[in-house]
Amino acid sequence: MDESPPPLRSVVGAAIVDDLQRPTRLLAARRTEPPALAGGWELPGGKVDPGESDVEALHRELREELGVEVELGEVVRGPLADGRWPLGDTFAMTVFWARVTEGEVAPIEDHDALRWLTSRELYAVSWLPADVPIVGVIADRLG
After folding, report:
1. What is the rounded distance in angstroms from the CA atom of residue 63 to the CA atom of residue 103?
2. Is residue 125's pLDDT more than 80?
3. What is the CATH number of the domain that holds 109?
4. In this structure, is residue 4 part of a structural domain?
5. 93 near 75, Cβ under 8 Å?
6. Rg (Cα) of the chain, in Å, rounded?
7. How many domains, the chain?
8. What pTM did the predictor assign?
9. Which domain holds residue 23?
């Protein structure tokens, strides 16, 4: 009898920066829901729908949540074997570097505030616990 846990559901996130080669600012988004996460700051993104690739899901989520189109860069590699970041026992997130190419970021859905943070300001917001180690990796590259 196989007792292995169910596979982790895929989530995608974007480390939206001002420049993919030499980033100096990172976009943080404050959640409005669910209640357990409301008020916490995160990297924008969301769940990957069935039949969707990570890239397709991230483009869709950023259009819905922020009203922007982005250029994606490389993956911000996480500690799991597949390069994802654990989000509790149920989800794992693939995070991409991203740069806005069309539109102005706005908190359209699931967020009530956005902030561009410099390397000195990165920890001026209360990041959701799962995003803290990701922000630590991003900090190393932010000029």
Report:
1. 9
2. yes
3. 3.90.79.10
4. no
5. no
6. 15
7. 1
8. 0.94
9. 9-140
112-131: average pLDDT: 96
DSSP-assigned letter for residue 111: E
Residue with tokens 């911000």: 76
Q: How many helices (H) and strands (E) does the chain have?
A: 2, 8
- Does residue 3 lie in a domain region? no
Own/partner pairs, 127-133, CB within 8 angstroms, 24+ separation:
127/28, 127/40, 127/41, 127/42, 128/31, 128/37, 128/40, 128/41, 128/42, 130/85, 130/86, 130/87, 130/88, 130/93, 131/13, 131/41, 131/42, 131/43, 133/78, 133/79, 133/85
Q: What is the pLDDT at residue 1?
A: 59
Residue 2 lies in a domain: no
Q: Three-class SS of residue 93?
A: strand
Q: What 3-state DSSP class applies to 102?
A: strand
**pLDDT tens digits, one per residue of 67-89:** 999 999 999 999 999 999 999 88
Q: Is residue 52 part of a domain?
A: yes
